[in-house]
Design brief:
- Chain A is of the alpha/beta class.
- Chain A contains eight helices and nine strands.
- An eight-stranded mixed sheet of chain A has the order 1-5-4-6-3-7-8-9, with helices on both faces.
- Chain B has a single domain, classed as 2-Layer Sandwich (hypothetical protein PF0899 fold), CATH 3.30.2320.80.
- Classes of the chains: A alpha/beta, B alpha+beta.
- β2 of chain A pairs antiparallel with β6 of chain B, so a sheet runs across the interface.
Chain lengths: 267, 113
């Protein structure tokens, strides 16, 4: 969905593989003009002037996103693809964590990557350098990926059965929390250079995640970051969170995550 | 600011329902929004006029029913108010809780003409 005007078109959203023009999927449209929604409604042979009526609805506001997410989830399940949605603040090391995983496991598993950023192909180029299939979604002004963007990106990626799909969301610890993409697991990454009270400040993201990666543990000697306190705060929000303490740049602790991944992937 | 996406989700639902009902516009819309839903009401108010411009919701009255977040402690079997997901049982401080209400974000009803 276009996140500027909400019509069905992908306004500023661009989806591309490295080397392609970024405007591949973009359909520009003018927000100043009223746009047409061609609804297929039934035409009865009488006037509809019935006065005021109340429609009882009880419809979830994110219904449209959730339909896309359900569609994605069904597709991933049918192909036994294990899907992760990586979320964090900008700079926590999502892309570095991904690079480390791909480097260490790409001979063992078939990875596919969807990179979400407001602008640039930078992250997709980093993944492409590892010869892993990747598409970049540029959300323009949008602050999160949504289910529809992932549907489009998956069509472009055409993943094979039994693979592992890594979706790196836009760096933002607030907005992506609400939008189901159809993933199996949401991974929230927090790094030791951030405050250890992040789970209390941004509880929604920790509540909606199943895995919490504490990154940059190699820097702990130089910082005032208390790992146990972070876990304690995060467990207040979500007692079921599974923690991994890693340094994505140095590789410390990554093997524990790999073991978990091996035993939890669908095939 | 995801409240724009939220507002546009509401517009999409209203446009679909108005078309289905063969109506012209919405007079009033009732929303259920929980305090744990992640929607900032101030932000929603801020984006609302822009989101509904030239849609069936332009000029419609918006009624928001705020649903207080409530957790249930498994150990004490009591219900307690929650302001955010980090709130735990005030009696025994156990971490495990069931969220009973407060995550709602839905269009409850539309009055159309």
């Amino acid at each position: 969905m276009c996140s500027t005007c909400g019509c069905g078109q992908d306004d500023d959203v661009k989806i591309a593989r490295p080397g392609q023009e970024l405007s591949v999927e973009a359909v520009a449209h003018d927000h100043d003009n009223p746009h047409h929604h061609d609804h297929q409604h039934h035409h009865h042979g009488h006037s509809h002037d019935h006065g005021n009526r109340v429609i009882e609805l009880e419809r979830d506001i994110l219904h449209h996103n959730d339909l896309h997410a359900a569609q994605n989830r069904g597709y991933f399940d049918a192909l036994q693809i294990t899907t992760f949605n990586l979320v964090s603040s900008p700079g926590s090391g999502k892309t570095t964590f991904l690079e480390r995983c791909l480097n260490d496991l790409k001979t063992e598993m078939d990875f596919y990557v969807i990179e979400g950023d407001q602008q640039t192909m930078q992250d997709a180029n980093r993944i492409d350098a590892l010869q892993v299939p990747v598409v970049q979604v540029n959300t323009g002004k949008g602050c999160h990926l949504d289910g529809g963007m992932v549907t489009d990106a998956v069509k472009e990626l055409d993943p094979k059965k039994g693979g592992v799909m890594m979706i790196e969301n836009v760096g933002n610890l607030v907005c992506p929390a609400m939008f189901d993409l159809g993933e199996d697991f949401r991974i929230v990454i927090i790094s030791t250079t951030e405050g250890d009270d992040k789970p209390l400040k941004y509880p929604d993201m920790f509540h909606g995640s199943q895995i919490c990666i504490i990154n940059k543990i190699d820097l702990i000697p130089y910082l005032d970051f208390d790992v146990e306190r972070t876990k304690e705060y995060a467990k207040k929000v979500n007692p079921d969170l599974i923690f991994f303490e890693v340094s994505a740049t140095k590789g410390d602790g990554m093997e524990d995550f790999y073991q978990w991944l091996r035993s939890n992937k669908k095939s | 600011m995801h409240e724009m996406s939220i507002a546009l989700g509401i517009v999409r639902i209203a446009e679909d329902e108005v078309a289905k009902a063969g109506a012209r516009k919405v007079n009033s819309i009732d929303l259920d929004i929980g305090t744990l839903s992640g929607i900032e009401l101030d932000s929603l108010e801020f984006v609302w006029p822009v989101a509904v411009k030239e849609t069936v919701l332009e000029g419609a009255t918006k009624n928001i029913n705020i649903i207080q977040g409530k957790g249930y402690c498994m150990d004490c079997a009591i219900e307690f108010d929650m302001q955010n997901f980090a709130d735990i049982c005030p009696t025994c401080h156990a971490l495990l809780k069931e969220i009973r209400q407060g995550k709602e974000m839905r269009v409850k009803a539309l009055e159309v003409e």
